[in-house]
Design brief:
globular, alpha/beta, 318 residues, Rossmann fold, 38% helix, two-stranded antiparallel ribbon, seven-stranded mixed sheet, single chain, 18% strand, 10 helices
Length: 318
C-alpha cells in the first residue's frame, strides 16, 4: 500500500470517527435538553398528596395514610355491593396483596374478619405494620407475610377473599399472580382487583417527586429516571425511593422495575386468555365529563382513572 493510499484511509477513518462522536454528542445534547425541560416544567405543577412525602414531613405514617384511604378502596366496588350495608369481610379469611405498611389491610380487619394476611414483598414494612396493628387493637386478627404474590404461602382452597388494590400494575408476572390467587381461593371465593392504567395522568407512579400529569407520554424513560433521581436524592429516604423504583437490566441499563405498564387493553387480554369468571367489571373515568372519552377505543387509556374487576372462583381448574 502506497503512502497516498495510507493517507486517504487515515483521513477517512478520522472523518468517520468525528461523525460518530458528533452523533454521540448530539444524542447527549438531546437527552440534556429533555432533562432540563422536564425539570423546568415540573416546577409549574404542585405535587399530589403522597404518603412518602407525608411520612417525611411527619404528618402521618405511610400505614396511617393507607388506613384513612381504606374506605375509598371499597368505594371502587360500590356498583357490586352496598358498602354501607354489606359487610363482605364478616367471618372471612382474607389476603391483601401488596399491603405495604398494611394500613388498608387493617381497615378491612376492623370489619369483622376471622383472619387477615397482609402480603408484601418488601419485608422492611413488617415492623411498622405490626406496630399499627397493635395500636388499633387488631394484632390477634392480622399477620404480615413477606412473600412474592406469585408464590403465595397458603394452601389450596383456603382463602375467602383476596384484595389486590393498586397491585396488579406492579407485579412482574400478572398472569401468574392472578392464577396463584385463584389457586388459594375457596370455591366461590372472590378476587377484588383495581388499578390505575399506565396512561393515567400519574400512571408512571412518580408523583411523589414529579407532579406533571402524563409526564411519561412526553419524556423518555431515561429522562424520567434522571429527573426523578435528581428530585429525591437529598431526601431522607431518597436512596430507598430510588432502589424501590429503579433497577438495571441484563445490559446494565436502568429502567423502572416497579411497574409493568399495565394498560386497559392488556388487562382485558389477560382476563380473556385466563378465562376468568368475571362477576363485575368497570372502567371509572377521570371525571364524569370525561365519561364519553373513557369509552372510546385507544383514547380511553388516557381518560380511565381506575379499572375495577371482581373475579369469582368457579369449577374451572386454574
Amino acid at each position: 500500500m502506497c503512502d497516498a493510499q495510507r493517507s486517504c484511509i487515515s483521513r477517512h477513518l478520522c472523518i468517520k470517527s468525528r461523525i460518530t462522536l458528533s452523533n454521540i454528542d448530539s444524542k447527549g445534547d438531546d437527552a440534556m435538553i429533555g432533562y432540563k425541560l422536564c425539570k423546568k416544567l415540573n416546577k409549574f405543577f404542585k405535587l399530589p398528596v403522597h404518603p412518602f412525602n407525608l411520612s417525611n414531613n411527619k404528618a402521618m405514617s405511610y400505614g396511617e395514610w393507607q388506613y384513612e384511604k381504606g374506605a375509598d378502596t371499597l368505594k371502587s366496588y360500590e356498583g357490586f355491593f352496598d358498602i354501607e350495608k354489606d359487610n363482605i369481610f364478616e367471618g372471612k379469611t382474607v389476603v391483601d396483596i401488596g399491603c405495604g405498611e398494611a394500613g388498608k389491610t387493617l381497615f378491612y380487619a376492623k370489619h369483622g374478619v376471622e383472619r387477615i394476611f397482609g402480603v408484601e414483598v418488601l419485608g422492611k414494612y413488617e415492623e411498622q405494620a405490626n406496630s399499627l396493628a397493635h395500636k388499633l387493637g387488631l394484632s390477634d386478627k392480622f399477620e404480615f407475610v413477606t412473600s412474592d404474590a406469585a408464590n403465595l404461602p397458603f394452601e389450596d382452597n383456603s382463602i375467602d377473599i383476596i384484595i389486590a388494590n393498586d397491585a396488579i400494575e406492579h407485579v412482574d408476572e400478572p398472569e401468574r399472580v392472578i392464577t396463584e390467587c385463584l389457586r388459594v381461593l375457596k370455591r366461590d371465593g372472590r378476587l377484588y382487583m383495581n388499578f390505575p392504567p399506565y396512561y393515567h395522568p400519574f400512571g408512571a407512579h412518580l408523583s411523589d417527586a414529579i407532579g406533571m400529569p402524563w409526564v411519561h407520554m412526553f419524556f423518555s424513560e431515561r429522562t424520567l429516571i434522571d429527573v426523578y433521581k435528581d428530585a429525591v436524592k437529598d431526601l431522607p429516604d431518597g436512596e430507598d425511593r430510588i432502589d424501590f423504583r429503579i433497577s438495571k437490566d441484563e445490559k446494565g441499563l436502568e429502567y423502572f422495575s416497579y411497574i409493568n405498564k399495565m394498560t386497559v387493553k392488556r388487562f382485558k387480554k389477560i382476563k380473556n386468555e385466563l378465562g376468568l369468571n368475571v362477576v363485575y367489571y368497570k372502567e371509572i373515568p377521570l371525571r364524569s365529563f370525561f365519561a364519553p372519552l373513557a369509552k372510546l377505543p385507544i383514547i380511553k387509556e388516557v381518560f380511565v382513572k381506575m379499572v375495577v374487576c371482581i373475579v369469582e372462583k368457579s369449577e374451572h381448574v386454574y
